[in-house]
């Protein structure tokens, strides 16, 4: 497969991160339209908030073939690539663990204010996983010392942690980053083993989807999960499959078949989702196969649209203002943790009219755009996460 980086992937990642920051800010608003929110576990349906996370999983998959092939083409062995995969997974799991425990923290029993704990957590992540361009910062501070400082901070935060039920830090669930980490681990290793064999990747997608079905009807006769719901793995692997389909068609000079092929795949997934809806419903919280496949179909259609605009028509300038969300996505995701904590410490609040209805939605949109611009500013001074 030709290892070509597509502008559409970065743009789709940026748009998805913009939406993720937006929907994650909806908690601060009142009178939010129901279709923008997460649906309850017992509901059969989904809102915009339920589509964003699987779209991000799909994008993680889109990027895997390019990233791994780039390392192999530079002379890295499969063993070293595997270690890189494990290292990235470890980083995502650690960040996910701390973020989930932040949600369950007992601020009244904590040695420091919850907001300080939150800021120190985010700062530690930056110190440990910043994309240092040289061994020295400002020409005098060894980067290894900053990484050690980051780990010391995380150790301190873990030591003083008090959970809402009097418990210490624990795995309540893996968190957004943790789920991404586990799915990335499985799918990246799977791709490293299978390579660009489209039909084998397609078969793996089917097997994982059947494992997702097994979570509801026990096809195997017993419960079985690859650490987390197979729904998460399916979403990432479908992203890999999409990129490999592109590469195979590009290598044969048959890209005219890409859009029809991907539209066909998306229709197949969406039809499956609605056809099986009566069996288990559409639910993000329960990770039903219907939700999995419908969201995957939507993600593929979004990629097709952006591929046509950005890759075929080469129209990318319109997305320049959100580009930092596509190139420094993890940094962008982390920035609200600083923002919300600082706002709480400073005691700032907006008038009720600014957080209600349409005006509130505009506020959340502007907040998301501001976070992206701050991320871009940090990039320009060489501050940004890279795992």
UniProtKB/TrEMBL annotation:
TM region positions: 12-31, 51-68, 80-100, 116-132, 144-164, 170-192, 199-220, 226-246, 258-278, 290-309, 330-351, 357-378
Species the sequence originates in: Haliscomenobacter hydrossis (strain ATCC 27775 / DSM 1100 / LMG 10767 / O)
The entry's keywords: Membrane, Transmembrane, Transmembrane helix
Source species taxonomy: Bacteria, Pseudomonadati, Bacteroidota, Saprospiria, Saprospirales
Name of this chain's protein: Uncharacterized protein
Coiled-coil regions listed: none
Domain of life: Bacteria
């Amino acid at each position: 497969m030709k290892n070509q980086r597509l502008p559409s992937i970065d743009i789709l990642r940026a748009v998805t991160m913009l939406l993720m920051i937006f929907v994650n800010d909806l908690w601060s608003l009142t009178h939010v339209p129901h279709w923008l929110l997460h649906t309850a576990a017992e509901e059969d349906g989904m809102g915009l908030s339920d589509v964003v996370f699987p779209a991000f999983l799909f994008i993680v998959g889109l990027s895997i073939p390019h990233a791994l092939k780039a390392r192999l083409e530079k002379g890295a062995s499969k063993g070293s690539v595997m270690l890189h995969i494990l290292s990235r997974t470890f980083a995502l799991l650690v960040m996910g663990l701390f973020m989930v425990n932040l949600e369950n923290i007992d601020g009244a029993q904590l040695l420091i204010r919850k907001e300080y704990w939150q800021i120190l957590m985010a700062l530690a992540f930056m110190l440990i996983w910043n994309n240092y361009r040289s061994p020295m910062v400002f020409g005098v501070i060894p980067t290894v010392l900053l990484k050690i400082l980051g780990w010391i901070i995380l150790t301190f935060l873990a030591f003083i942690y008090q959970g809402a039920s009097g418990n210490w830090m624990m795995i309540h669930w893996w968190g957004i980053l943790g789920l991404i980490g586990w799915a990335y681990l499985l799918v990246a290793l799977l791709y490293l083993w299978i390579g660009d064999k489209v039909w084998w990747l397609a078969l793996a997608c089917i097997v994982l989807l059947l494992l997702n079905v097994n979570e509801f009807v026990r096809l195997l006769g017993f419960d079985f999960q690859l650490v987390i719901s197979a729904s998460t793995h399916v979403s990432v692997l479908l992203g890999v499959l999409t990129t490999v389909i592109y590469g195979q068609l590009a290598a044969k000079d048959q890209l005219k078949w890409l859009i029809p092929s991907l539209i066909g795949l998306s229709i197949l997934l969406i039809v499956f989702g609605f056809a099986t809806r009566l069996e288990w419903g559409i639910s993000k919280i329960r990770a039903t196969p219907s939700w999995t496949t419908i969201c995957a179909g939507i993600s593929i259609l979004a990629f097709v649209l952006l591929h046509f605009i950005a890759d075929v028509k080469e129209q990318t300038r319109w997305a320049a203002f959100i580009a930092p969300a596509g190139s420094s996505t993890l940094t962008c995701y982390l920035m609200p943790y600083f923002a919300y904590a600082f706002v709480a410490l400073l005691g700032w609040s907006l008038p009720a009219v600014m957080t209600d209805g349409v005006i509130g939605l505009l506020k959340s949109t502007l907040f998301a755009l501001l976070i992206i611009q701050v991320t871009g500013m940090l990039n320009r001074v060489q501050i940004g996460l890279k795992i």
